[in-house]
Amino acid sequence: MSSFEIVDSFIAEQNEKARPWVEEDYEHLGKKLRRQNVDIDDLVSKAQAFRVAVPSWGVGTGGTRFARFPGTGEPRDIYEKVEDCGTIFKLVRSTPTVSLHIPWDKPDDATKLLDFANTRGLSFDAMNSNTFQDQPSQKHSYKFGSLTHPDKAVRQQAVAHNIECLEIGKALGSKAHTVWIGDGGNFPGQQHFRHALERYLESMREIYAALPEDWRMFIEHKFYEPAFYSTVINDWGTSYYCARELGPKAFCLVDLGHHAPNVNIEMIVARLIQFGKLAGFHFNDSKYGDDDLDSGSIKPFQLFLIFNELVDAELNGVANFNPAYMLDQSHNVTDPIESLMMSAVELVRAFVQAHLIDRSALAEAQDKCDPLTALSMLKQAFTTDVAPILAVARERAGGAIDPIATYRQSGYRLRKNEERPARKGAASSGIV
Ligand code: LRH
Ligand code: MN
Question: What ligand 1 atom has the least distance to the C-alpha of 101?
Answer without folding.
Answer: 10
